Amino acid sequence: MFLDYFALGLLVFVVLVLFYGIIAIHDIPYEIAKGREHPHQDAIHYAGWVSLFTLHALWPFLWIWATLWRKERGWGFHRLEEEQHDLHHRLEKLIDQVESLQHEVNSLKQHSATEQHTDKPEEK
């Protein structure tokens, strides 16, 4: 009789530990996001609760989403933005150079045309 109650108590204990363990596990991405001051931490938290109903199918994606953000570097794309900014300035300089070269070519063409026009002997 004692062993029956002990087994029942053990079964209830295991079920409760598993239940609360699953709930604690689903909150790990939210805790990561909260610790990193993630801008989408509320969305990660809500998606974690939705993930409970999908048997944690979303959970790995929430983990990735939570770990991508860092307060000091954001999403980590600053280097890419800087490179694009530098390329944009280089492109502007090249466009300015091409325009000045086109202007110079046009002025040389005009100068050449006026020289050819003045070098022709006049017909009488």
Automatic annotation (TrEMBL):
The chain crosses the membrane at residues 6-25, 46-66. Keywords: Coiled coil, Membrane, Transmembrane, Transmembrane helix. It comes from the Bacteria. Pfam families: DUF3302. InterPro entries: UCP028770. Residues 77-111 form a coiled coil. This is GTPase. It comes from Vibrio panuliri. The lineage of its organism: Bacteria, Pseudomonadati, Pseudomonadota, Gammaproteobacteria, Vibrionales.
